[in-house]
Amino acid sequence: MSVAVFFDMWGVLIDGTDVSARWQALVGEFLAPRLGGEAAAWGPANAYAAERMFARYRDPRGTPRETHSRLLRLWLREMCEKVGVPVPKNAGVLAKETIAWVTSRIDAGSPGAVEAVRTLRARGHRVFTSAGAHSAYTDGHLQAMGIRNLFDATYGSDLIDRWKTNAGFYRKILEHSGIRGEDAVTVDDQEKCLDWARRAGFARTFLLATVGAASAHEMIATLSELPARLEG
């Protein structure tokens, strides 16, 4: 029987070990020709502005769509101020273009991720993401991995306008995708997220964790194990 598999991104499909360092190396290549300043100056500026942006996300004070737009504009503005160049009028648009350009050049796939997704699709399963971040990050990284075209939809909190903080997030992606709970599977590295998915009606919930960990959910040590487990 075919199912729909919803993957978390960070820590599941993506290994974030050196993503930040690669961001600092790439962001100037995109922004310096467009806004000015030395390319090397944009990396430290991004590190500064991104840290402040992530801190603001901990208390967003708004819906995902409103918050993402506001914080991305602020992120670009603070980078410009650090580099010493004027803030463009289209800051929101340019911020999303920056994310798309940089992430599409960072192949940070977790071990076995690409092979697992390809195998699932070859066996007739549908694949989605269930990430809390903006979908622009998800799309870019999946493009870098060469598998974006295999996903039916790449859900981030912006697409469904729900934060990934409770079962409502998972109910919303089921509603938006048209997938029934009894046909839905999700993989995450956070047990609380799987608890929410189970409460939302997901049939199977997989925790990606090291061997020896204990969980109330099904467990896999690598994504390579997932296709065979779904056949069982």
List the helices and strands and how they pair.
Elements: E1 4-7, H1 19-35, H2 39-57, H3 64-83, H4 91-103, H5 113-122, E2 126-130, H6 135-145, E3 153-155, H7 157-160, H8 167-177, E4 184-188, H9 191-199, E5 204-208, E6 218-220, H10 226-231
Parallel strand pairs: 1-2, 1-4, 2-3, 4-5, 5-6
Helix pairs in contact: 1-2, 1-4, 2-3, 3-4, 4-6, 8-9
What do you see in this structure?
A 6-stranded parallel beta sheet has the order 3-2-1-4-5-6. The chain folds into 2 domains: 4-16 and 108-231, 3-Layer(aba) Sandwich (Rossmann fold), CATH 3.40.50.1000; 19-103. By secondary structure, it is an alpha/beta fold. The protein has helices at residues 19-35, 39-57, 64-83, 91-103, 113-122, 135-145, 157-160, 167-177, 191-199, 226-231, and strands at residues 4-7, 126-130, 153-155, 184-188, 204-208, 218-220. Strand 4, helix 9 and strand 5 form a beta-alpha-beta unit. The protein is globular and about 60 Å long. Helix 2 runs antiparallel to helix 3 (64-83). It contains 10 helices and 6 strands, in the order βαααααβαβααβαββα. The chain starts with a strand and ends with a helix.
Number of strands: 6
SSE topology string = EHHHHHEHEHHEHEEH
User: Which blocks of ≥5 consecutive residues have pLDDT under 50?
Assistant: none
What is the helix content?
40-55%
Mean pLDDT: 95
Sum this structure up briefly.
By secondary structure, the chain is of the alpha/beta class.
Comma- or semicolon-separated keywords:
single chain, 232 residues, Rossmann fold, 2 domains, six-stranded parallel sheet
